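Teaching assistant here, posting this on the class forum so everyone can see the example we discussed in section. The complex has two components, and the goal was to see what a joint structure prediction looks like when all of them are supplied at once.
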Amino acid sequence: MSDVLRQNLLSPVALAFALGVTAKLIRSEFSLPKDVYAGLAAYLLLALGLKGGAELAHASFSVVALPAAATLALGVVTPLLSYFVLRVLGRFSIPDAAGIAAHYGSVSAVTFIAAQNFAKAMGAEVEGFLPTLLTLLESPGIHIALALGALKVATPGRSRSSVLHEVLTARTMVLLVGGLAVGFLMGEHNWASIEGFFDSKGAIFKGALTLFILEMGILAGSRLSDLKKVGPFLFGFAILMPVVHGALGAALGTLAGLSVGGAAVLGAMAASASYIAAPPAVRMTLPEANPTFYLTAALAITFPFNLLLGIPLYFGVSRWLHALVTT
Amino acid sequence: MNTVPLKLLTIIAEPILETRLTADLKEMGASGFTVTESRGEGSRGIRAGEVPGSGIRIETVVTEEVSGRILDFVARHYFPSYAVIAFVSAVDVVRGDKYV
C-alpha cells in the first residue's frame, strides 16, 4: 500500500497541486490568468464529453443501464445524506446545509480524471462510458440540495424556471452534455481525427490537467487561512463524508457490474465535491449560505484529501468488494 | 454645447450577478449600460463573492426617477446577501434624449 501511496503522491497532478499551494503560502504573486484557467476547464470538460460520447456510441444499452441507474441513485442519496448530517449533527442553518450538500451531491470532474488515471496506473481497466455517468451525477445533486434549501427559504424575485435555466446552461453542463452528444454523433472515423488532441490518455490532456491543477492549488492555498473559520465539524465532514460516499459508490458500482477500476472511479465521483458547477448555482439560489463554508470545504479539504488519500482508498475498497463478490 | 442634467448610477457587484442586474436595469427603464470588470476589497472582504471571476462595475445614465427605482430594487433584492454597492452621481450629458 505504501508503494501505491507514494506513486499517487508523486504523480504530476499531486505535485502540481502542492506547487500551487506552496506558491500561495510563500505569497508569490503567480497565478494563472483567469481566461487561461477558464479555457483549460473548457478543454478538459469538452474532452471528457467527447470521449465519453465516442465510447457510448459502441457500448450496448444493457451494459450501461445498471451503472447509470446506480449513478442516479448516488446523485439522489449523497445530497440528502449530506444535508441530513449537516443539519442534524452539525446544526448548520438550512441555507448553509443545503449549499454544502449541493457541493457534495455534485461531482468534481478533475477528481474523476485523477481517479481514472490512478486506476489505469494500477493496471485496472476503466469502462469507456464512465464520462456518461459523470454527466448523470453532475446536476441532480445540485438540484436536490438547492430544492431542499429553496423550499424552506424563499428566494426573492427569482422564479424557479430562471434558476433552472441558469443551472442547466452552466458551462459544465453545456460542455459535458454537449460533448457527449457531439462525440456520440460524430462516429469512430471522426473521433480518430481529433483523438490526438482530446484523448484523456494523451500527453496534451494530461499536460493541460497539470496546469489546471496548479491553479487549483493556488485557489486552495488562498483558502487555507479560512480553515480556522470552518470549524472542526465541517473539517471532519469534509473528510469523512467523502469516505462514506466513496464506499457507497464503489459498492453500488460493484453491484451494477462495473470492473474494479470502474467501481473505484464511480466511488471517487460520489466522494468528490463540485467546485466549478456548484458554487455559482448555490451563490445565485441560496445567497444566504456562507461561501466560505462550501468553497473551503470542497476545494481546500475534500479535493486534496481525495486526490492524495481518497482515490487509493476507494480503489482498495473496490478491489476488496470485487474479491468478496467473486468468492 | 447644450447639456442635460441626469444621473449616473454605478453598481459594483460580484460577477455572477451580471446577467440578472443588467436585465433588471433594462426592465426598470435604463436605455443602456456599460459593464467593466473590476477588482477591489470592501466590508465583506474580497471573499464574499468568490465564485471565481472578477467583480463587475455597471454604469448607466438614467433620469432621477429611474435611478431611484433601480436603487430601491437593488437595495431590496441584493444588498442583504450579496457583495453589492450602488451610488448615484450627478452628470451633465450631451444628447440627453438618448437616456430618457
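For the discussion questions: The mean pLDDT of chain B is 86. The helical segments of chain B are 18-27, 64-77. Think about how each of these relates to the inputs above.
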